[in-house]
Amino acid sequence: MVEPLSGHRVPAWRRYLRFWGADSGRDLDDELRFHLAARYDEYVASGMSAADARIETERRFGDLTRVREQCDAIDSQWNRERSMMDIVQRIGADLRYASRQLRRNASLTIAAVACLALGIGANTAIFSVVNAVLYRPLPYADPSRLVLVGEGLPRFGTDNFGVISRPEFSDYQRLDGRIFASSAIYEPAELAISGGADYPERVGTVHMSWNLLAVLGVPPARGRNFVATDGDTATESTVIVSDALWHRRFGANPSIIGQRIDVDGWPATIVGVMPASLQFPLPGIGGQPADVFVPFKFRPSMEFMRGNSYETYFVGRLASGVSLAAAKRAASDLAASLPTIHPDKYSHEWKTVADVFPLRDHAVQDVRKPLLILLAAVGLVLLIACINVSSLMLARAAAREREISVRQALGASFGRLVQQFLAESAVLVAIGTGSGVLIAVWLARLLAEHAPADVLHAYSVSVDARVLAVTGAVAIVTTVIFSLVPAFGARQNSLTPSLHASTRGSTAGLARQRARRTLVVTQIALALLLSTAAGLMLRSFARAREVNPGFEPRNAIAFRTGLPTARYTSSESVVQVEQRLLGALRRIPGVRYASATSELPLAAAGGSAQRFAISFEGKTLPSIPIAIGEIVYDGYFDAMGIRLRDGRGFTPSDVPGGLPVAIVNETMAKRYFGSESAIGHRIKNGSPESPSKWLTIVGVASDVNQVAVDKAPEPEFYTPATQAATNGVGFLRGPGFIVRTAGDPAPIMAAVRRAVRDVDPDLPMVGLKRMTDVVDASMASRYFNTVLLAGFALLALTLASIGIYGLIAYSVVQRTREIGVRLAIGAMPHEIVRLVLAQGTRLAGVGVVIGLAAAFGVTRLMQSLLFDVSPLDAAAFVGSAALLLIVAALASYLPARRAARIDPQVAIRAE
């Protein structure tokens, strides 16, 4: 508490003595004492006694402690406001000064902003793709709890199929309530639809258990979800359509609920519309997004599929508190018990194993590594861009040595210098980041439009809050680094030499020169690493383009169609209408051959390869062979341009009731018959004890890359459509047609469409395209990755060349007097050029050596992305190194020529 009276006034000089070390508390006490003393003296002068004056003074002032606290609070608030205003004013002044400095050095500012914008823009765009595919939550309720159950058969190999057999759903449902909160199944398909528009259409379809959407936690945007009765065989069929189909085929009619649509020839009622945000299934677990969702109607006849047909995806939602490891154990135990539960369906020799996978991880397993490699590559580009800007900032700091020294001489602290450089870096980075985000938005849209469908078709690629947060973090870190680099350089400067040296003649210290050289060497090493990776991808893509797919894609077109089950119920009716269609196609002028198959090569127009377990008569093998099986019509090998290596093709004599025959490819013939001819041997679909007929091999065809051009051919066998059994009719309902023409097929495409309509106006056509386009589409993912990586490498080379050019040009400016003296004492211009070029190539050589060492270790991670190319391919390494050295030489040549033209007298006089 302040003493009310001290017997005398507090001298004012005590406060002035504290000018450099203010004590606000003591000053407040002094101020209160002054006012108390003044009031006391006033009362004494008016005639009061000393005691009465003291009492009255204390009464009039009240509680001095409270008064002091109020005054102290007011003083503290004022100090805070003054400090905040000072900070704001200081920041504003720093930003204004920074803007003037950047405008004064416009060329350097433009170069730095361009580097940052390109680096941040490319990095943000690629991260937006990675974020959408790998990190953004899926549009389901609590997606981290969703898992897939997949089975495998050790006798067929170690791979897990990722799917189960449809009848096994009832077995795995025993885990509901204990392991899974709920579970469902689905199967992707393609079906013909009609209704809502005047043309038939073949669309992606999902057959599903009625509760799939409930398991995913996705209610329809319109209408209702499926209910249990929708799966009853006695009830009318119901469907839910996608938002895209609702808009495309029904014009977004708000009265869509209750409308009828024909699905595969059967009438169905639309009961719901999916949300626009839902794209299902995801790539990797079902293929293209579905437009129609149909509930399964389980029938006892489906039991024949148990342990025999694996094409059903099982989705489960983990129960609360259940770990993935516990789910794996439970699924494995249940799969092992299947032979005991169903002894008549499973052989104890054919052990079934099961595993559980997180839904997201399984969906992106094929694209995760390529995307992360692209993200790492674009991260290196950003690092190179930042190094370039750091090098420019160092050069600018060197040019400002005198200014910085004057500031230090006037008392500027290291912290004050950092604050100033921080403001300059913030302005620079803000402009670069803003420009980069604009580039990223444009580039992200471009990537979404041109990325392969199997990568992004179910994901919404956009620059969202998470992407902007990462970009902001990068910008903040970059700002801090760019401000510290010149500030630390300034801290190491000696004031006296900097102040005594003339501005024109001052040179950077050895430490700063080493720093810039180190930055340039790092740029070159990183650029070489990217160039080598891009070289490997380019060589891999070139090798893939050189692969003979096993058929002749030129002068050929392909399409698919679909025969509704309601109208074409038997194998005979299916074969008859398809033969009529083939006859109509063959009669088109300009058509040389026309045929059809259950599966077109390279997944043309949405097809896929069907694999079957097979047996060889008289052969006992350690594992069950798996082979691709196709049902084809006569003339297929001629229409596709597939050569027969041995035996014969299918003929009109291969009819029902005749000798069941088959044609195998070279891979199957060599793998299972060696040097012996395969002709005359017999194979069977299934085990030797299965009821399937033995097929006599009558021909050996050349290998066809059925799955993709860059995938090695698998064992494959062909059977004639005329001998297709009733259980094979399903494979013929969505046949692929191949038409070979005498010349360019484009003019006859319209005639092909008319021929299909003439045979059956309700038959949809899908994916009518040239086979050359099919071949290109099969390499879309490889092309996409190659183009992006090559683009990043080119950008890195450009930035590295700018860095080399900047360093050499700056070095020439700093060595002007030295070069002038050399020329004055007789050095020839070409010697000066050689001298300067040697400086650039030496730095490039060091960077190349470091980059090659790094590439030897890093490129091994790309093994899975390469085709027929070693990750240590000498041509890619040597070519990248040579390219970097050439770029370095070219970047050094212009400063070298400028140095050779220096006038010695002018240079020396200037010093």
Mind explaining what this structure looks like?
This protein has about 900 residues and is of the alpha+beta class. The protein folds into 4 domains: about 15-90, no CATH class; about 155-350, no CATH class; about 370-545 and about 780-910, no CATH class; about 570-760, no CATH class. Helix content is about 50%, strand content about 15%. The strands form 3 sheets. A 6-stranded mixed beta barrel has the order 2-3-8-5-7-6. It has a 6-stranded mixed β-barrel with strand order 13-14-19-16-18-17. The protein has a 4-stranded antiparallel β-sheet with strand order 12-20-11-21. Strand 2 (about 180-195) and strand 3 form a beta hairpin. Helix 11 packs antiparallel against helix 17, helix 18 (about 570-585) runs antiparallel to helix 22 and helix 26 (about 830-860) packs antiparallel against helix 27 (about 875-900). The chain is globular. The two termini are about 70 Å apart.
Report the span from N to C terminus.
Answer: 71 Å
Average pLDDT: 80
Strand content: 5-15%
Helix content: 40-55%
- How many extended strands? 21
Helix segment count? 28
Q: From the helix content, strand content and strand pairing, which structural class follows?
A: alpha+beta
Give Rg in angstroms: 40 Å
Query: Within the largest sheet, what's the order of strands?
Result: 2-3-8-5-7-6
Total count of domains: 4
What is the global morphology? globular
**Sheet with the most strands, sense and barrel status:** 6 strands, mixed, barrel
Which spans have pLDDT < 50 for at least 5 consecutive residues?
Answer: 1-10, 494-508
